[in-house]
Amino acid sequence: MRGFILSAALLCCICVGAYAQESKQVEQLDSVVVSVSRAGRNTPVTYTSVYREELRESAPTESLPMILGLQPSVVSTNEGGTGLGYSKLTVRGSKGSQINVTLNGITLNDSESQEVFWVNIPALNSILGSVQLQRGLGTSANGAGAFGASINMSTAYVSPKPYSSVEIGGGSYNTGTISVASGTGLTGKGLYGDIAFSLGTTDGYIRNAWAKVYSLMGIAGWMHGNNSLKFTVLSGNQHTGITWEGIPASKMAEDRTYNPAGKYKDADGNVCYYDNESDNYVQTHLQLNYTHHFDRGLFWSTTLNFTKGDGFYEQYKADKKFSKYGIDASGKADFITQKLMDNRYSVLNSTLKYQSERLNAAGGIYLADYLGNHFGKVLWDSVAGDRDFEWYRNDGTKRELTAFLRGEYRFADWLTGYAELQYRLVTLRMKGLDDEFSDLAYDTAWDFVNPRAGITGRWGAHKAYMSFAIGHREPGRSDLKEQIESVNALRAAGKEAEVTLRPERMFDSELGYEFSTPSFTASLNLYSMEYKDMLLETGKLSDSGYAIKENVDRSWRRGVELCAAWKPADWVRLDGNITLSTNKIKDYTYYEDTNDNQTNWKFIGKTTVNCGTVNMLMSPSSIGMASVGFKPFGGRDFIVGLNCKYVGRQYWDNTQNDDLCIPAYYVVNCKAEYGLPVWKGKLTIGAYCNNLLNRDYYADAWVYRALFADGSPEYIEEGLFPQALRNYSVKIRLEF
Predict the structure, then answer these.
(1) pTM > 0.85: yes or no
(2) Distance (Å, rounded) from C-alpha 219 to C-alpha 607?
(3) What are the pLDDT digits (tens) for 546-604?
(4) What are the φ and ψ backbone dihedral angles of 99, each rounded to 5 degrees?
(5) Is 140 within 8 Å of 420 (Cβ atoms)?
(6) Residue 346 contacts by C-beta under 8 Å, 6 or more apart in sequence?
(7) Is the pLDDT of residue 353 over 70?
(8) pLDDT by residue (tens digit) across 358-398?
């Protein structure tokens, strides 16, 4: 660890590139809706950017969260152990539901869970022009409140010329990928069109971690003078094996690829696995944007968005009571069930942006309406055979109004002030029965005022900034659903209980310094994120893999982020970053489920366990990255790279039990790419090796604990997520 810190402190941070455009006007019209939600060079916000070139240089097996894993304070994991399938990331320990994600200014976070399921929009790196990752509260964003980070993505800007590309990749675990893209470029009449398709398949590392995913994007646009009109279609389809249960700790030494999903015994007592234990989802985004450039630096942009999602997951449930599914029959049987959902999300996003020599100002309004239907079906049981029986149905409607005003004013050539005010009004109505026949009736509204302010100074190669922001975020549907179920269970046990989940609040202070020259850059950032009523994960998962949360009165994340980059010669570049932090809950009280005995498992209430001040779960106190890149022949056509990621110890839950923690780990990856001109284009061949040192580690975990009134030993159930051992991939990309 000590050696890693010393090396990382001497190395860099972020690789940057440029995607040039022939016309500044074209770029402004095409990017104004994205730039409104992004930080500029003088905005006192902590951020990094990843551009088209770096996104294209990734291994074909890597999803976007895995590509972003080298950014400061980021930890990326994959449920199946490789890059394809269910992937996620944390930033400064903040989880997916606390990270606001936008594509072309429209939020991608699911309105109910506030999560982004990256597997639903695979191969994003092949269609994106750039990604800006803001740490902390950042700038105002639409949709679910950014509560630790935001990821602002944009599709590639309008190409001035026609282009086409095809990329074919393959790797370990029968992984295969293909991506094709083509565009007309901007024609003389101002018309343009782009289309891109990507397909990925893999068997995955652990059993049942197979994935079949594809994405399709189409863009049709028109630009004339000061006007731009663009229609975008983005559709993703995923068919994946269920892996969210993880692997019991007892199985890790015996078989680290074991996965209990779909396990049952046949009539002869033989262990079998259901072959369609799967998660299936189709999501399509339709966006229509109009942008107009008025005279004197004034831009108006309006986007209409409609998102439709449909999906289900199918499971084999062995030895369950008929009453569990509301079937009027006695005894038990094996069942095949589906839990289904369909949803629609409609958005109007309108912004006005002004640019002058001294003032950059923006304002906007965001209206959103979401309807999500949830229902379950029994398809088959081992007694009656095929069925088509619906056992539960519920739905939720969520509406949001967001408005903001933002301004950056340059008081002097070296000094810029920043101020922003955001207002959010959110309403939520839920009704119907869940899969446990618990009544989910709930109706509420929240409104939040979120101010931000800061100042930036620039002189020569130096930049310094400081900012302060206040943010609020409402509970998600899954958070409320789990507490409603708990409240109903307590009431059934004769206890008084109410739904008490509250919105969370954060005070974010950032203080940063950057030094930049053509050959060397370095930055230092101090942050303090102080929480009130934080919605914190407990370490438990719901039946569908959601992380169950609860409010904690007082908590904080405080740390220092160091980044550096050094280019001692044209043919070599060193990069590194490190985050050292403390992530604490003050006077934490844990409420553990208590049942009568291990035979009946009759719920009788909760037992209070006072833990004192503890570390937050899945929040390492040290994260670091070091990388080196070579261009042996002094040009861009041959690149060799090596990087190392270090992640410190992480606890499975918030009790700070040393027996329930992920040991610190580090992973080394390497790559080599060679490009050569062919015909009127370029052919690139790449080879990649992940986990070069063959480290045996796991990167994520959950745990469920229960007590018994009769004095039986505590019940502990856990799931660990091992990552693949040394694995390889290759790709060939042709561009012209």
Answers:
(1) yes
(2) 56
(3) 567 788 999 999 999 999 999 999 899 999 999 999 999 999 988 888 999 988 888 88
(4) -110, 115
(5) yes
(6) 305, 306, 307, 368, 369, 370
(7) yes
(8) 999 999 999 999 999 999 999 999 999 999 999 999 999 99
CA-based nearest residue to 179, from 98, 122, 131 = 122
Any idea which residue has 């109410």 for tokens?
498
- First-to-last CA distance in the chain? 45
**DSSP code for 59:** -
Q: What share of the chain is helix, strand, coil (3-state, %, to 5)?
A: 10, 60, 30
Q: Residue with structure tokens 């993880």?
A: 246
DSSP secondary structure string, 347-407? EEEEEEEEE-SSEEEEEEEEEEEEEEEEEEEEEEETTTEEEEEEEEEEEEEEEEEEEEEEE
Number of domains the chain is built from: 1
Q: Is residue 37 part of a domain?
A: yes
The DSSP bridge pattern shows strands 298-321 and 385-412 to be: unpaired
Q: How far apart are CA 577 and CA 590, in angstroms?
A: 35
* Secondary structure of residue 115 in the 3-state scheme: coil
CATH number for the domain spanning 419: value is 2.40.170.20
Q: Where are the alpha helices (DSSP H) in 493-527?
A: none
Residue 662, pLDDT above cutoff 60:
yes
HEC per residue, 574-641: EEEEEEEEEEEEEEEEEEEEEECCCCCCCEEEEEEEEEEEEECCCCCCEEEEEEEEECCCCCCCEEEE
Q: Which amino acid is at 733?
A: R
Tokens of 213: 């995913």
Whole-number Å distance between alpha carbons of 593 and 547:
16
User: CA 18 → CA 53, 512, 679, distances in Å?
Assistant: 8, 24, 25
Average pLDDT over residues 171-186: 94
Report whether pLDDT(668) > 80.
yes
Q: In whole angstroms, give the CA distance from residue 463 to residue 302.
A: 34
- The 10 Å Cβ neighbour count of residue 93 is 25
Stretch (H or E) spanning 27: helix 24-35
Per the model's pLDDT, the better-predicted residue between 26 and 710 turns out to be 710
Asked whether residue 331 is domain-assigned, the answer is no
The Cα 564–Cα 517 span in angstroms is 11
pLDDT at residue 12 tops 60: no
Nearby residues of 15 by Cβ (< 8 Å), 6 or more positions away: 50, 54, 573, 575, 629
Rg (alpha carbons) of the chain, rounded to whole number: 26
Q: Answer for the pair 114, 147: CB distance below 8 angstroms, yes or no.
A: no
pLDDT score at 414? 95
Give residue 143's pLDDT: 62
CA distance 535 to 549: 6
Q: What secondary structure does DSSP assign to 128-141, as a single string?
A: EEEEEEEEES-S--
d(CA 736, CA 731): 17
Pick the residue with more confidence: 157 or 46? 46
Residue that is written with structure tokens 């004034």 in the block: 298
Q: Which of 464, 439, 481 is nearest to 523 (CA)?
A: 464
- Does some domain include residue 329? no
Check if the beta carbon of residue 730 is closer than 8 Å to that of residue 688.
yes
At residue 628, what is the residue type?
V
pLDDT value for 145: 66
Give the model's pLDDT for residue 721. Answer: 96
Q: Quick check: is 564 in a domain?
A: yes
Reduce the secondary structure of 397-436 to three states and give it as a string: EEEEEEEEEEEEEEEECCEEEEEEEEEEEEEEEEEEECCC
Distance of alpha carbon 523 from its chain centroid, rounded?
Answer: 25
Question: What is the model's pLDDT at position 547?
Answer: 61
Q: Find the domain containing 16 and state its range.
A: 2-259+266-312+341-375+394-735
pLDDT at 446 over 90: yes
Q: Which two tokens stand for residue 46?
A: 């902590």
pLDDT of residue 25: 61
Closest CA to 526 of 560, 491, 482, 477: 560
Which of 283, 279, 304 lies closest to 110 in space, CA to CA? 283
